[in-house]
Amino acid sequence: MARTIQEWMTGLKAGELPTVEELAYLLTVRGDDSRLLLQAADSVRAAVMGDAVHIRGIIEFSNICRNDCLYCGIRRSNQTVTRYRIPDEEILETAAHAKEWGCGTVVLQSGEDPYYTAERISKLVRAIHAMDLAITLSLGVRPRAELAAFREAGADRYLLRFETCNREQFARLHPDAPFEERIRCLDDLRELGFQVGSGFMIGLPGASLEDLARDLLFTRQLQLDMIGCGPFLAHPDTPLRESGQLPDKSVYYHTIALLRLLNPHAHIPATTAFDALDKESGRNRVLEGGANVFMPNLTPGKYRKLYLLYPDKPCVDEEGGACMLCIRGRLRALGRKMATGRGDAWRLTNAGGNNA
Ligand code: SF4
Quick one: which atom of ligand 1 is closest to the CA of 75? Predict the structure, then answer.
């Protein structure tokens, strides 16, 4: 490649769209070039989204799932998992704590659990909405009518990762639902007025750097308000237990940096799985390389060990209050502050760096 990394960064900041091959090259830069890539992402994050870090507290309220995604530790075939549903009162109590602890948003996350009908979820959403918290749902693929009911009840946002835009790989990893259905769901969400989040898994078995580059470009196509990506980590109780990680760890971090450069206005979380990749420092590194959102796990302690989508999940022995203290410490060390508002999509606040 004839271009220097500085020229690449100038081009990306000006809105240039690299090709798949060019992105694959940028994912693997080394040494000073790697440092400059991460710095460029950090400076775009600071200029566009500001220094405040939005805190979205996750409540993993059911680990029951009808699906059998090959990489997932709570897939329906995994008989070693003790299944749970958190009673509504306990979910609402946790949401109230989230508010006290300074979260602007509560994320209700579960497997695709048919017990949670539109009516049951809407009831929870209404109660949390009344606490003056923004609500993100992450419940998997749902029919449009159910999504409409959630929106009507007061849900603001919805997260549904596409995981990979390679149709063949998607079909191999997700035996239960076609790719098109997931994209239909994302379209429905946008039309219904949700703030829409999606993302992909970095380093899926069998995926090439070019596949990763295509996933990065696909996020642009989807015009997302939030983009969550995390490393693939092989769970021992899944068919992918033998799969390894990318030989070059920096590719995981470069992916987030390029995500920021390609999507300057998106909320990008430092996802928990990065702390499993690099114990206790992974999420910090992501916050220093383009991310502006942190998603503490607020799931009550007794359920946490039962929601292991991947191995070595951090914070499973903590309670929500301890996680919040930990975050404050992390942000202080990074010279960042905790945002105080809801942290809505940039296109809605249109306040750029001031949307704290
Ligand atoms: S990834 Fe989600 S939908 Fe797939 S098995 Fe796991 S919880 Fe279920």
Answer: 5
Across the chain, which has 356 residues, the per-10-residue mean pLDDT values are: 87 94 97 97 97 96 98 96 98 96 95 98 98 97 98 98 98 96 98 98 97 98 96 96 94 98 97 91 96 95 89 78 87 94 91 44
pLDDT tens string 228-251:
999 999 999 999 999 999 999 999
* Choice from 75, 81, 141, 158 to test ligand 1 binding pocket (greatest atom count within 8 A of CB): 75
Residues 6 or more apart in contact with residue 322 via CB below 8 angstroms: none
Is the Cβ atom of 235 under 6 angstroms away from ligand 1?
Answer: no
Q: What digits encode the pLDDT tens for the residues 111-162?
A: 999 999 999 999 999 999 999 999 999 999 999 999 999 999 999 999 999 9
Our answer on whether the CB atom of 74 is closer than 6 Å to any ligand 1 atom is yes
- Give domain 5-341's CATH architecture: Alpha-Beta Barrel (3.20)
Which ligand 1 atom sits nearest the alpha carbon of residue 68? 5
- Candidate from 61, 79, 112 with most ligand 1 atoms within 8 A of CB, to mutate: 112
Q: Within 13 Å of residue 264, how many CA atoms lie on the same side as its CB? A: 17
Give the CA distances from residue 66 to residues 50, 111, 121, in Å, rounded to whole numbers and listed in that order: 40, 8, 17
Q: Please tell me the total number of residues recorded for the chain in this structure.
A: 356
- If you measure from the C-alpha of residue 112 to the centroid of ligand 1, how many angstroms do you get, rounded to a whole number? 7
- Single pTM value for the model: 0.95
Radius of gyration of the CA atoms of the chain, in A = 19
Ligand 1 atom 4: the closest Cα is on which residue?
69
Q: What is the identity of the amino acid at 152?
A: E
Q: Ligand 1 atom closest to Cα of 72? A: 6
317 CB contacts (<8 Å, ≥6 apart)? 301, 304
